[in-house]
Amino acid sequence: MIPENVRFPYVHDLARLLGLVEQAGQPVPESVMRAASLSDYAVGSRYPGPLESVTEQEYEQAIVIAEQVIDWAQGVIEMQWKADNGGGKTV
Predict the structure, then answer these.
(1) Which residue in 88, 90, 74, 72 sits closest to 29, CA to CA?
(2) What is the full DSSP assignment across 48-66?
(3) Most CB atoms within 10 A, among 14, 24, 64, 87?
(4) What are phi and psi of 27, to 5 degrees?
(5) CA–CA separation, 84 vs 22, rounded Å?
């Protein structure tokens, strides 16, 4: 969003941030949109209070989603870098 000069809020709401990415013209795959479910973990771990336990299955699913987001973001960054540098070597 920075290369497109899109202002974005400093929030933990991943659905809102992913929506802004789409509005900026970057397609977001469904697997990455699932990251919106991770917002609860960010808020829950940041602010004190009683938290529900996370099951092993929820933990593993969160890791899978996070890895998919990282892979997607790295691909987007690499494509942008190549476009900005004439298709040269990636970083």
Answers:
(1) 72
(2) -S--PPPPHHHHHHHHHHH
(3) 14
(4) -60, 140
(5) 20
Identity at 82, one-letter amino acid code: K
pLDDT for 41-84, tens place per residue? Answer: 876 666 666 677 889 999 999 999 999 999 999 999 999 889 88
- % the chain with pLDDT above 90: 48
Spatial CB neighbours of 31, under 8 Å, sequence gap ≥ 6: 65, 68, 72
Name the residue with tokens 């941030």: 17
Domain boundaries along the sequence of the chain: 14-84
Q: Give the gyration radius of the chain's Cα atoms.
A: 16
